[in-house]
Design brief:
Helix content: 25-40%
Largest sheet: 5 strands, parallel
CATH architecture of the domain at 66-227: Alpha-Beta Complex
Number of strands: 18
Radius of gyration: 24 Å
Structural class: alpha/beta
Distance between the termini: 19 Å
Strand order of the largest sheet: 3-2-4-5-6
CATH topology of the domain at 66-227: inorganic pyrophosphatase (n-terminal core)
CATH class of the domain at 66-227: Alpha Beta
Strand content: 15-25%
């Protein structure tokens, strides 16, 4: 692992400038009217062919794949159309996170728009845990449902699928999680991760799959609706679930974010208001750090139904009430999460441990996923956070780029009662008495692959050096054309050398650093998230080198360029 130099609290990481073809850079400059810096960023990412650049810079709805690329979409759409025609009860069952909530809202909205008798249910994190289970199916039967659609869950729900068959309920699964060895018996299974799904892209979030199902129904219905207004919610769920923002997801998020300024949904408007998100230009950062946490808070500490109702109600007053409720619950979530983070940080891993495994008695299950993400950020290793409650324990795992955490859990699976998720995030359930044995097993798992991934995290791949004698404002605006940024399309990283700190370094909220820097292109504000511990060391260090992204910061109606420091150290080291 990287180690800190004496007297400097941040572990040093290697900075590497990506290689590019000068001819490709020149062709991008002339062919698309880009600056040399932006052209270099595209070339460094391998986006050089004319069609690829065109699709990247100008994402078009025409690039969306047909819902019927899913080989089982036809059966799902036919059954839902029949239910609409017969006025049969349809129930949509979703997960309690942002992806599951937005997926539920998108599909319920689509079907209700067509006059369907559509209800919804959502798993309760503490009472039921994740996913579709037989008791969920029983409640659907009691509600008179003839068709049950599981969104953001269901791909491993073998017992629930069997219960639906016994009760004569037609089950449709619209999921995006990794399947197990056996696929549930259902009327239709839509999951892009299935090898024989037929779908050309495997990176859709569950809300994307739900949108495809809803759009398939709309396309076959006489109403002629397209459902593109729902892309606002699809974008929010896609960003929140950290789905890679490339290919179809890039198109979805581009158009969803762009049209948020035209939102009319009372719940969405109320949520944006309490979150302090303006309607002028909503970014992935606004979604990830303002909108999504409040939606997520409902399912973490409370009942996720509150968030679903907020989006489905047509009453602006009710929507405002629910949005304020989510805002307050999120404040509770923040405070609770910070307390557990501090306790988890005390369980510092050994230098030779490639994983971080932290466990605590009675830690709230609703926030351990967030805590795991913070531990990954702090130690740059995969992290598993476990809450022990009596004889049972539940955990959340988060990974680093390039390491499949789900595969690691499979190797240590003999100590687990249940597990599932993605390559980058997963959940586990185990007996409390097996926590120590699981910790030992996971620490011995996938060592060679993990060490290779860890080495890559110690190297920051950078797109370019911050150019000299250019307008940072103009460059920041041009780089905005490469948005939306997020998983699979990170913001461009720049190596910034020999920048002088002008004035005082300010600590914000006890956690972040803010400073003014002088570069060869002029003065600029800079922010370093969660680096307050470095403030005392900067008193005698007036010049720094850094890896940073260049953004436009909106504040009180004004737009100014800003550097966001990802890594920094005294100049010349």
């Amino acid at each position: 692992m990287a180690v800190s130099d004496p007297g400097w609290p941040i572990p040093h990481r290697r900075w590497r400038l990506r290689e590019t073809d000068p001819q490709a850079v020149s062709a991008l400059e002339s062919g698309f009217g880009l600056s040399a810096t932006t052209a270099r960023v595209l070339a460094a990412r391998g986006i050089t062919e004319h069609e690829d650049v065109q699709a990247y810079l100008y994402p078009s709805l025409d690039g969306l794949h047909s819902p019927f690329d899913f080989v089982q979409m036809e059966a799902a759409v036919d059954r839902l159309l029949a239910a609409l025609d017969r006025n049969e009860r349809i129930l949509v069952h979703g997960d309690y996170d942002v992806d599951g909530i937005t997926a539920t809202v998108v599909l319920v909205t689509c079907l209700r728009t067509l006059g369907g008798d559509v209800g919804y249910s959502v798993s309760h994190r503490l009472r039921e845990g994740y996913g579709l289970n037989p008791s969920s199916v029983d409640r659907a039967h009691e509600a008179g449902a003839k068709v049950l659609v599981a969104v953001d869950c269901g791909i491993t729900a073998l017992a629930a699928a069997e219960r639906a068959r016994q009760l004569g309920i037609d089950l449709i699964i619209a999921d995006h999680h990794q399947p197990g060895d056996e696929i549930p018996e259902a009327l239709a299974v839509l999951d892009p991760c299935l090898p024989d799904s037929g779908y050309p892209e495997s990176d859709l979030a569950a809300v994307g799959v739900a949108f495809k199902l809803g759009r398939g129904v709309l396309q076959r219905h006489a109403s002629g609706r397209r459902g593109t207004a729902l892309l606002k919610l699809v974008a929010i769920g896609t960003i929140a679930d950290l789905a890679p923002l490339r290919g179809e997801n890039r198109i979805i998020t581009h158009h969803g974010l762009k049209t948020l300024k035209d939102a009319v949904n009372p719940g969405l408007l109320a949520l944006m208001d309490v979150s302090g998100v303006g309607r002028a230009a909503v970014t992935t950062t606004d979604v990830a750090f303002r909108l999504a946490p409040r939606i997520n808070a409902a399912g973490r500490l409370d009942d996720a139904s509150a968030a679903i109702e907020m989006f489905l109600t047509g009453d602006p007053g009710r929507a405002r009430h629910l949005a304020k409720h989510l805002h307050q619950v999120n404040k509770q979530r923040q405070q609770l999460g910070e307390e557990i983070v501090q306790s988890a940080l005390e369980q510092e891993p050994s230098p030779e441990d490639a994983f971080v495994v932290a466990a605590g008695q009675g830690w709230h299950r609703g926030v351990i996923g967030i805590v795991a993400s913070r531990l990954v950020e702090h130690w740059r290793r995969p992290a598993i956070v476990i809450s022990i409650e009596g004889d049972e324990a539940h955990g959340s795992a988060r990974s680093i780029a390039g390491f499949d955490i789900l595969a690691a859990l499979r190797e240590a699976g003999e100590h687990l009662e249940e597990f599932g998720g993605h390559k980058q995030a997963a959940g586990i359930r185990l007996k409390a008495q097996n926590v120590c044995a699981f910790r030992e097993a996971i620490l011995a798992t996938g060592r060679e692959v993990l060490e290779d991934a860890l080495r890559r995290t110690e190297c920051l791949e950078c797109d370019a050096e911050l150019p000299a004698d250019v307008s940072l404002r103009d460059l920041a605006l041009e780089l905005g054309r490469l948005a939306p940024f997020g998983a699979g399309n990170r913001e461009p990283r720049f190596i910034c050398l020999d920048m002088m700190i002008n004035g005082d370094v300010v600590v914000i909220n006890g956690a972040h650093l803010k400073m003014k820097l002088s570069t060869s292109s002029g003065d600029i504000e800079a922010i370093a998230w969660r680096q307050a511990r470095v403030a005392p060391f900067l008193a005698d260090c007036r010049r720094i080198d850094a890896v940073a992204s260049l953004q436009m910061r909106r504040w009180r109606g004004r737009n100014n360029p800003q550097l966001v420091l990802e890594d920094f150290r005294p100049a010349g080291e």
